[in-house]
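Exercise 7.
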Amino acid sequence: MMQVEQGNAPSLLVIDDDIELCGMLRSLLEMEQFAVAVRHDVVSGLAEALSGRHRLVVLDIMLPGGDGRALLRDLRTRTAIPVIMLTARGEATDRISGLEDGADDYLAKPFNPGELIARIRAVLRRHAPPAPADIIVVGDITVEVANRRALRDGVSMDLTSAEFDLLVVLLRRAGDCVTRDDLSQQALGRPMGPVDRSIDNHMSNLRRKLGPHADGRERIRNIRSVGYCYTGSSHV
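Solution. The predicted structure, written as tokens, is:
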């Protein structure tokens, strides 16, 4: 019996020969918004674990047709799918052996259902794919937002924190006019006061450091009484 991902629900694979326990785990995990597939032996369990349909495997040691640890060792030569060992053999030597064979975690039977859920979520968090890098490219300017690095023609620029944040706001809206108040709120984190010239001062320094486009056009236009506009089209 198998149930793969339902919508955006992470799909988990349980490999255990205890049919009653598998039924309980299926109900428990589905209540926690996981999709669940079940296999009861080594051969079908290994094949399903290698199918690419699942985010994590919950694996018993004692299985018909072989040993769960051997299955784990075989699995580790072919895939990095996270595995939680769930077994009645909970002695320290068994836990150490399972971890050395490549298990991400080890939980002995009988277990607390809440603890299993917590361990599953913790392992999934550790194995979550990294967020795509937030990189903005506009013409010859590249900004690596997470690294707080700005480059012109591949050469790093020495910007202050405020100048960097202003540049990010302008590049995200390249071609549009951004008001001074929006720039102050988004880059400086505060509303602009009635006689506040900080945005204009930071922008003057930023324009000097950026210089004009290669064709001589100014990069940042001052829209009188409104705000500033970075000239160009953004590609994020």
